Fold these 2 entries.
Entry 1:
Amino acid sequence: MQSASTDIASRAIGIIDQLKGKEGPLLPILHELQDEFGYVPPETLPLIAQALNISRAEVHGVFTFYHDYRDHPAGRHVLKLCRAEACQSMGGDALADRARQLLGIDWHGTTADGAVTLEPVYCLGLCACAPAAMLDDEVIGRLDAEQLEEIAAEVRL
Amino acid sequence: MTVTFYVPRDSGALALGAEKVARSLQAEIDTRNLDARIVRNGSRGMYWLEPMVEVETPNGRIAYGPVKASDVAALLDNGMAEGGVHPLWLGLIDHHPFLAKQTRLTFARCGITDPVSLEDYRANDGLKGLENALKLTPAEIVAQVTESGLRGRGGAGFPTGIKWKTVLETTGSQKYIVCNADEGDSGTFADRMIMEGDPFVLIEGMTIAGIAVGATKGYIYTRSEYPHAIAVMNEALEIARKGGVLGSSVLGSSYAFDIEVRVGAGAYVCGEETALLESLEGRRGIVRAKPPLPAHKGLFGKPTVINNVISLASVPVILDKGAPFYKDFGMGRSRGTIPLQIAGNVKHGGLFEAAFGLTLGEIVDDIGGGTATGRPVKAVQVGGPLGAYFPRELFDTPFDYEAFAAKDGLIGHAGLVVFDDSVDMLKQARFAMEFCAIESCGKCTPCRIGSTRGVEVVDRLSANIEPEKQIEVLTDLCNTMKFGSLCALGGFTPYPVMSALTHFPEDFRPAPIAVAAE
């Protein structure tokens, strides 16, 4: 336990040191930490505050303001479904309901087996091939119920 | 002779399977031992035909689409390498009516060139604007942009030249060019397409802006939802540095300029310019009160030009062909071209760059071809989640900043989302309020509280609880939000809500209970 948190701290400090010289380094640091750990470990927030000479409250404020940052790991896969108007016009709402039903979770939830986290997203810029989704880094256009069922089965393998 | 195939790397094409098509094509090339190469271009913006594969022939580029990976072998069997005919054959792509009817100035190269080839860029009129700019004084560059009539394409429509002039005339130890690439409006993807399909035009535009106002550093603030655009942009920046376009001496001149990509973290409000600056500085994306204007005190308190991607990407052609050339397109006070993004429930969805002045009906019915579902068009939301819903009765409205404002709407970033007659406008009004509540930065009360109250009022309305009173409250609430909010998020959320209520009142009245005739 001790070694795990020390490991997180030392890796985090490495990242913070590498980026703190940038102008406005806080978002790049949080992004890099999330890339490294899959989430932003809460114990790294005081380290950031110290390195940037800002208050812990300020770091906490930034961390919690943005929808992207997580304070705990996501599932092995992250499925983002677009909830915005262009996707609504092509039946996005019904697909979203189907996704929640298939996975048995609500928005921001992770399946009990840790396979997948479901996130809403407001526009992926794929509005001319709606409804759109993103599975991990893969963009998906013209999503339909059949494809959604395949995805739901695939992520649980 | 080596045959050149084009398979887009645009994320819209990728979302429809372009990567599999490219892999399949490469495998066939290898198996058949063809003397051929694949260029990963941007998209032409005809998304109903993506993935669209093109082949270079002596007569021009022949296109095929939409191509599935499983079609590739048959296409090659039918002589795709020579432009052979096949059911997916689209003919000479430049003659395709969707493209032939456009005026592509900003998107002149998008979908044509290899986005990360500086040689391609130069060979297709790239860098000519920058070269011309280097022969002018900063004030002359600004004068050209002012004269062109270019207005901010992000939505506000503020004259770009005036913004630049203010920064040029403001003294500062450091000035910045910030590109607002936080394209969060549903129905818009022009910024993404430029970044993925012709990143050098944005780099060139920002560099010209830097020279014009005396800035040496630029930031492109884009969205985490755009991983492909980020990757292409970063690749192009590295190539531009190596090619001497960016760095301590721009194209061998005495000007220095460099650009860095910064990525947001899923906050819609950061598309508002002052929230964006806060975010770039490493803070919560809270809207700043104006004044001071960003032109006086922007990023880190320094004079800052903050422009949308399309505004900046339109600058090179203005400096290349001259302000009068650009100004000659358009109508009224809306000069030049606008990349329309036709999206949602539409048959021919995609990007259509044209001079201002087409009517909404021409755009939706003629160019877009009506709905994808084949049902009648009921409403078109223009300008993103903060834009008004237009009914068919207003389809004669010309696409122009002032004409849309006169109809209580806005053109915004020029995205159009088409809805068929299955849409429930009360639900759309509720969504507008809900979205505002989710994305509000929380600084001002009308937006933070008003949006939540708005959702509640619409819910009461749909439950048929004193509907007349709810409509009165909703109207009053929208008025407060419109005039009392600090920025466009709270201030413009009333547009979709009130337009839905005004133009589609039947959706706000529960179906009358059937009463027996006798």
Entry 2:
Amino acid sequence: MSSFSQTNMPQQTGKPFIASLFIGLKQLKHLHISTFFIALLFATPLLSIAVEALAPNSETFAHIKQTVLADYIVNTCILALGVSALVICIGVPLAWLIAVCDFRFKRFFQWALVLPLAMPAYIVAYTYTDLLDYAGPIQVALRDWFGWQSASDYYFFDIRSLTGAIIVLALVLYPYVYLMVRAGFLEQQANLTHVARTLGYSPLRSFFKISIPVARNAIIASTALVLMESIADFATVKYFAVSTLTTAVYDTWLSYYDLAAAAKLSLIMVLGIFVLLYLERIQNGQKQTHNDAKLSAQKLTYQLTKKQSILAIGYCCLILTISFIIPLYILSDYAIDYFSQAWNADLFEITLNSLIIAGLSAAIAIVAALTLNFSLRVKPIKLHKTSLKLASSGYAIPGTVMAIGVLIPLAFLDNQINALADSLSLSPPGLVLSGSFIAIVLAHSIRFIAIANKGIEASYAKISPSLDMVAKSMGQPNRKVFSKVHLPLIRKSVLVAGLLIFVESMKELPAALLLRPFDFQTLPTHVFQYASTEQLEIAALGAIIIVIVGLVPLIIINRSIEQH
Amino acid sequence: MKLFSFILLTILSLPSFAKDDTVNIYSFRQAFLIEPILQQFTEQTGIKTKVVFAEKGLIERIKREGRYSPADVVLTSNFSKLLQLTDENLTQAFNDAAVNANIPAHFRDDNGHWVALTKRIRNIYAAKDRVAAPFELNYEDLAQAKFKGKICTRSGKHPYNLGLVASMIAHHGQAETKAWLLAVKNNLARKPQGNDRAQVKAISEGLCDVSLGNSYYFGKMLTDPAQKAWADAVHIVYPNQQNRGAHVNVSGAAIAKHAPNKQNAIKLIAFLASEQAQQAYSLLNFEYPVNPQVKPAPMVASWGEFKEDTLPLTQVAKNRPAALKLIDEVKFDL
């Protein structure tokens, strides 16, 4: 029942530009083979890491297990659960207010509340550290006010802590819950509001008694995404000096020089994620519903009273301010003051690099996700199910581990290509795969394909199988079923997923950091380079560009959910 | 299959990385720190420089790229990385008269696989107004009860701190070093976090009284208008002056095993060892030159003469794994 697709059958069938993306799909007799190869490609990093993990046991793993591993696991669990709980608390009420209620400024909040998704978590972490630091404006003002002399004179919340990390991650990740749950509410809204009214429920009562239970799948699905994202986070927890399993993976690899032990730890993380996904699937399985009937066109909402409206507006303002306006204000302040130092012609090229990488990553992930989901739809066999699951594993792999997982096979291929050139006495071309930006694109699409798989899978679940049967009984080949029946119905969730991947890829740092070619920068690496040497003021301009570029797709996403 | 052959042909017809006028650099150091020096090199020799900078994972990348790796020169920011490169058989020997003339033998690998380019000291930074007799401090003193709740540092696992702990093991043995680490941990004002500069900032804010930090950060803070106030609040202390001397680490360079442009790589390293570049390192990055003919830049010199720990760097490197284990055993970062 989750995700952001529409259920009405549009008049216009498949758009040519989308359809043209799937030339590969035209040869549907090869569907089996392409599914297999796509799954293989997308599982390559995981497989490479698994192969690494097979190396004989070293004492590093045992040492870490004896000393710090338990603390890392506890921290990771607290972080993941804390962020999940907080995004539900923030996201679900917002989704409900916007989807089901009517109050002033709702139209503004409806799209504005998506914006924090454009903020990379580590940048929010930088800005809040700047703000809440001892030398930041708040503590300075407090000291002036109360006449405190030094840090020992008073207690102040330490943002660089596990709690701080939970808050910062939740602030940028809640839009996932808000978007998906809101779409869930919108789909059920008309029918269920009727029910609620018939039963004479108050708005609040219908929220708990009807909306929440029905949107349960959307809540679980979106929280699962957030959970995976927070487990894989490195930049934020590193900046806040919180040791999690990701830290353990990095330490083992980069301090203990033990890639095999690091690979083992990564595998444990991925296994944990698989268990979570499995549990989520069981949940979903129980509640599978197909929307056969068209929803009533009538839009029913609760008109909030004046008092309720003020509360609703206040809540929306609060969340928007702390998650978006304050960080953006701090960044803008720096960007303006240090514009002459931060601005140079390179920044244009860097932005272009980021755009190309994000665009290609999204396109590749979408094509792959469509192929995988379609094969599962046409032939729901074990192989296709496993393919889909394997291909989604990337989301749980921390960025730097993903980078290594991509580097290992690509460098291997490169070496084969060069050896071939040598044997043909041609001049070897160098590292065309691992040493080019293709490596970054691949790392991003593999890491984020889970977003597309989730969205498309959920949309597919809502298309009644009887539609396929009708098309089949009319003698339509698979290709036509896909382009004439499925694509028009899932088009919207495809668009949303593509744009989300674009935004995520714009923000993603670690893969680019490790895999980039000579003299090649993306916006995140540019920002990181200055921020990591305590020069947030120079990094600010690049950070703002990341946010602005991310805003456009987010506003489109929001619109597509609303056009119901 | 046609498409595949086409792609393969296109790939094979691409130009290779071996070019007469280029040198490819894999750098653990921030690209913009070395940029001005590389520019001087290009002006003098006409050889262009291409840089990949990454703090993490570069060694793995070189390893996986194998014999077709474009890397010519690897620049590292500490000694243990130099040693890891040679240990993993990723470097090659080189011998250049100019390099040998400019860099003393104890700052070069016996087998010619690496050279050190700059020295940096692991200093103690002490609050000007709150620490008694700061210039008599030893690293060992950080374990004293009087510093309870008064020490700030970055992660114990950072290479700079690892090097220091490894040297402590070399001097005192593991058991004593573990006790020292535990005592220092218990004296911390806050969990290890941030970089070396952030600790000096914390001292200026009264969060702590002493911190560990590399020498060049003092110059960087003094010349940054926004950070000068932090540096003004502290003394830069060269520890252990009454005994073995202050702990030294080095940045350095090596030539990659499969360097496509080895001659250019040697030219670059020779340039980096020359008086001109060594002066620039000291002037721009506030480091200590390894070339004995070059005096430190005036600002660096103004921090005073001091005694260096003469423990061979190989001894430090040998104790590094043990240092790392101790840091996890005492849960220094947690």
